[in-house]
Amino acid sequence: MKIIVGVTGASGSIYGARFLEVLHEAYPEVESHLVVSRAGRRVLLHETDYDVRDLARWAGAVHSETDIGAEPASGSAGFDAMVIVPCSVKTLGLIASGTGDTLVGRAADVILKEGRRLVLVVREMPLSAIHLENMLKLSRLGVMILPASPGFYFYPKTMADLVDHVVGKTLNALGLEQNLFEKWRGQAPARPASSVLPEEGEGGAESVN
Ligand SMILES: Cc1cc2nc3c(=O)[nH]c(=O)nc-3n(C[C@H](O)[C@H](O)[C@H](O)COP(=O)(O)O)c2cc1C
After folding, report:
1. Cis peptide before 198 (omega within 30 of 0)
2. Does ligand 1 lie within 6 Å of residue 91's CB atom?
């Protein structure tokens, strides 16, 4: 499998870093090509202890954002998929408008026209109608919009658990099996309501013991 990994200037650079680390450690069969946007570099330095050289160590190849002649810029290079993690709403808009004037935008445009898998780990809060419309437009074209919003139903203890939930979901979106979080095996049977709520006439919760 040959994939492009874009890291853009949305908050959550740690998702991109961890994704590349896991890909490097657990999926030697995946050839990864990394493109970090200018803003992506800036946010990475602001939010983490990593710089782009650290990310490059986990990638098979690294391309400059301005190198629109690099391998990911052409459909004939044969990439299977692209993931942008994290994906800013600026890059989201760029892709939705089909104006790939950077390597990240061009590569995503190519993936779309070639009918390959595109996964966008979008991060912004709140979202405007423009952002939502862009997401809907791309979703209808088969793009997977994977908001960087970890779940809490698996009882995360650390920030690393939360990061791994998003990264695990991203790996799944690319069709890669992962064990960063446990598969949901069905909820334990709920306790009967009567065991947690006071019966009518019993008063408030304080009086139950
Ligand atoms: C510290 C920091 C955090 C940011 N967080 C976000 C964010 O969460 N989502 C977002 O869409 N843009 C965010 N931005 C703004 C983007 O970096 C900016 O729109 C940039 O132009 C995106 O360019 P790119 O998509 O080419 O990386 C942030 C910027 C900075 C400096």
Report:
1. no
2. yes
DSSP state of 70: S
Q: Does the beta carbon of 2 sit less than 6 angstroms from any atom of ligand 1?
A: no
Q: Which two tokens stand for residue 6?
A: 């874009």
Percent of the chain residues topping a pLDDT of 70: 92
Which position has the higher pLDDT, 142 or 100?
142
Q: What is the number of domains present in the chain?
A: 1
Task: Calculate how far, in angstroms, residue 28's C-alpha sits from the geometric centre of ligand 1.
Answer: 31
The answer, yes or no, to whether any atom of ligand 1 lies below 6 A from the CB of 41, is no
CATH number (domain holding residue 100): 3.40.50.1950
State pTM to two decimals.
0.92
CA 52 to chain CA centroid, Å, is 18
Quote the domain boundaries for residue 157: 2-207
Q: Output the residue whose Cα is nearest ligand 1's atom 30.
A: 43
Distances (CA, A) of 9 to 6, 79, 124: 10, 23, 11
Ligand 1 geometric centre to CA of 69 (Å) = 25
173 neighbors 146 (Cβ within 8 angstroms): yes
| Residue range 58-98, pLDDT digits in tens | 999 999 999 999 999 999 999 999 999 999 999 999 999 99
